[in-house]
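User: Structure tokens for this complex, please. No commentary.
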Amino acid sequence: MIAAYLVLLIPFIGIVFFAFAGHKQDTGRLNVRFNAITLAATVWLAVNVLNNGTILSSDKAFIIDSFNVYLIVLTAFIGLTTAIFSAPYMEHEKELGKLTERRLKLYYSMYQGFMLAMYLVLTTNNMGVMWVAMEGATLATVLLVSLYRTPESIEAAWKYFILCGVGIAQALFGTILLYYAAVQIGDGDNALLWSVLFENARKLNPEILQIAFVFMLIGYGTKIGLVPLHNWLPDAHSEGPTPMSAVLSGLLLNDALYAVVRSKMLVDGATQGNTAGLLMMGFGMLSFLVAALFLHRQKDIKRLFSYSSIEHMGIMTFAFGMGGPLATFAALLHMTVHSLTKSAIFVSVGHAAQLAGTQNMERIRGLIKTQPQIGWGLLIGTVAIAGFPPFGVFTSEFLVLLATMHSYPWLAPLLLLGIGIAFAGLFRHIQPMVYGEQPEGQLPIKANLWPVMIHLALVLWLGLAIPDFLANWFSQATLLISGSMPL
Amino acid sequence: MNIEQQDFYTQAILSMAALVGLTSFLMLGQGRLLRLIFVFALQGLLLTMTTALAAYSLDSPHLFISALLTLVLKVIFIPWMLRRQVLLMNMHRDIEALKNNTAVMLGGASLMVFSYYVLHPIVQTSSAIMLNALAVSLSVVLLGMLLMISHRQAVAHVVGFMSIENGLFFAAIVATKGMPMVVELGVAFDVLVAAVLFGIFFFHIRTSIDSLDVDRMNRLNEVDQ
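Assistant:
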């Protein structure tokens, strides 16, 4: 259990530390170290869970089971690699005069604040605290979206703040309804604890829980970026600093989906049906198709990939909604590989934008000629995210497709069509950027592409073979969520 | 069941619910910012009174802490901050011409009916009183959103945002005698941070577009220019 407390304590120290010392010379490297220590703590935690199974802290405030343990490690890992990328990146931005020392302080302090909120969402056993942490994540990142203080970035941050704030308020209403249903079966103080609710799910009033779930889906769905609540997402991703886009896409969206799935597990227990799942399937499919179409008309490279995030979150929501063991397993895998691939892409995109001096895709050209690592990183990342074998995204999308053909055959063509449209949408933009002649005077920049390579290697590995312990966690989580083992 | 047959506490809660709902409608039709903020503070005060009443009648002392937090945050700090912004920007004489005021008011009324409709299944598990209280809270939430849609000033948006929080808070008090303490403190903390962030944002928006009219923030969209 100490490991879980450490995971929360280290980022907290980080917030305070960087708030005072964030402007020093080596802050970027210190930020890397903070994240590395947290990663070590999460690995320790994971080993504990691997040996002893589910951990419930003595006051029941925290729960680590097979569903969240791998997400915690994933969060820490992406937090670390993004920090590695962010150190020279932010230094470069400072040299360009886009940032002042005070803003760097804010940036590093809130980077840790965001990480803390993410760990809290994942580890807490209390549905109320989960809401608080989710809102905390918005509050931590909203000033980072407007870090450059351009009119566009301020507009994006305002939109992000208002939309997510109002959206997530709905989730609080859902949580209150959940609490209301729980109080009726007794046990006032523990009534919001997920583990207690899950045990007693059958006794909860199904009608109230269904209403509560609608509110929670809308609330957390705003954060997932489900269409039609997605408007903040492309703006916030495109106007904020690139490391922020990487962690928003890689972590925040995942954790919001995690909150929805936790709620769904309670509702399924109460209703003994799949109403919640149908809602998720509808929203997921809509997001997936709309985002795939929107990919075609983007001009800004970061907007392009944020729509791709919406598309993939749509697939996951759809798969979790479908609910069978195979679909759930696929969704869990997809959460992992999408996070890894998407954050790798945003790292390459950040370098590409710095290289070309613009985010406008029409003016980014000849990346491979100018600096092969960046060009290839972007190209391979895009190949992976579009779902080509042998990468992990292919495996999970294929499993989702199989599950769809099995349970809802008439939806399979839509799914295939969407994947095809998304593929075309990505490549029509990427192809001229990476190939083609370089503009005159475009020079290589100092870039650190280790994070990209490591992420893509992991995605490749997951596509070829899933290691035993991970497959084991996925299976147990699937058992927990869907009620039966996959395969 | 008749309202006279209820005990004093239930009657008081019902009147409070009615008053809170009324303040939401008052805000919806208000074009002057200072008056909007005043009504918002009034709503906060009603909430504080409800919380204190619940704490006293239901003998749950931890609600007194919530009452105090509400008083400090929603009645004093946030209205003071917003008022200062309005005076600073010299907007206290402007009257925002609300488009389609009648339609907005009618929309508000239908939202209230809608809230009753959505929450009707709750009657199964408890009294009709609870339905009233919860439906009013939900309609305060929805009216807060409508307020944000119908007003163009950033200050009005913040008032709408905070009044959504008020609706949620009211629901938590009347339906479940407040949330567990840790959650309540967490929510209060989030509201405080949000209020401070709004203050910072006003400053940024003012320096970037020289006004607090959010309609002028229209650079980012998917429409072809």
